[in-house]
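Hi, here's the filled form for the chain we discussed.

Project: internal
Contact: R.S.
Residues: 493
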Amino acid sequence: MAEGNDYVNELTDQEDNFSRWYTDVVRKAKLADYTPVRGSMVIRPYGYALWENMQALLDRRFKETGHVNAYFPLLVPESLLQKEAEHVEGFAPEVAWVTHAGQNKLEERYCIRPTSEAIIGDIYSKWIDSWRDLPVLINQWANVMRWEKVTRLFLRTAEFLWQEGHTVHATEAEAEEETLKMLGVYQDFIETELAVPVWAGRKTEKEKFAGALRTYSVEALMRDGKALQAGTSHNLGQHFAKVFDITFQDRDGVRKHAWQTSWGVSTRLIGALIMAHGDDNGLMLPPNVAPIQVVVVPIWRKEEDKAAVLEMVDQVVGLLRPVCRIQADTDDNNTPGWKYNEYEMKGVPLRLEIGPRDVQNQSVVLVRRLDRKKEFVPVAEIAARVPELLKEVQQALFQRALDFREQNTHAVKTWAEFTEIFPLREVGQEAPEGSKRGFVWANWCGETSCEQAVQDTTKATIRCMPQDRPAPDGPCVRCGGEGKERVLFAKAY
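And the returned structure, exactly as it came back:
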């Protein structure tokens, strides 16, 4: 039999090496693993179940806002991609090309989609003719490929799963409304279901999506103090419509170019969950998306107690199955202590223990993964108490993450204060570790050159300009010129 803490003791501590801790957790919790395909991962059943739960909750939100799902080709002809120079330039280093079919060289190369604006733009130009055809509100769940130089499971892989919405509208105002609406959908989903607080706001010109008029993002803070871009929503303006000739005859009889949006989140959100909530014992999954919300661990020492304990396990599982995702671990090959550690590693929100004394008392022990807090609940009340407790854990996880973000958000006015948090570094060199971490509110002059100088010397970037941001209250933190925006800086993944 496997014993006690060995399962968790093999984990790297977060404080010792957060990056290694992250990889340890992904693999030991059996979320994903490496493959012979460079930079790609296999998502294991437990990790895929987590993605399916997230996908279902997000897809419901899309459909509630009037969107429908479709599917577009994986391969994009080079001639289509080349039509949009800015878009091509933005993705050129990451594009993987298909050049042969069997032994025959193709007359035209195809790229494996890094994103689908080009192929979808060409198709939309054929579908749209009149104002009556608008708006087009389509989403697709798909895989994409970006030939990343440095990869990390879930956070940045060559191939990953995502959804990408692509909509078409008659006016700029309608496109902007859609862009902000979907940004709000992402914020609500991430905060409500994933229990991760995010800042939602506009990206700078330097950081916007290639070919977009405006880009918005949701930015989360991980427990190592780095930011993670959790999702993006783009107002594409008429840029792609002009390239791919997406026009419509308006009500006034005039033919006009359409206005477009695109927006997406990916399996990177699983990485966000791990790094926003995990601890030195492994995952800590929000109940709303956890593949297993409650695990039942039977306990007996004497063989004569086994039958009664297992009978009560069956009873409790029967009571709880209609109200939660539950699993009973009745495997005799592992001790209860080993099981405790395994399911803590997997981030199961609640553990339910049943032993001979519990059978006698007709009660069970409930243990929260979040803080190991125990409570004793009569079997007769278990079906009512467990859903309540899952809601409590969901909210407590969000509050914990929110408190962490607030404790690690700083406001600065001077370059000296800024570099206390993000120490200076030589261009091309790794930055030394600072005494603080997290988000930094600072004034910015609005110049890309100043923004780039901050990144070159500290590795910190402007994550976004939040929608409800305060007004600038002083000069630019970097150059001392007029402060035109109050922005959020951070080091990021």
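Let me know if anything looks off before we file it.
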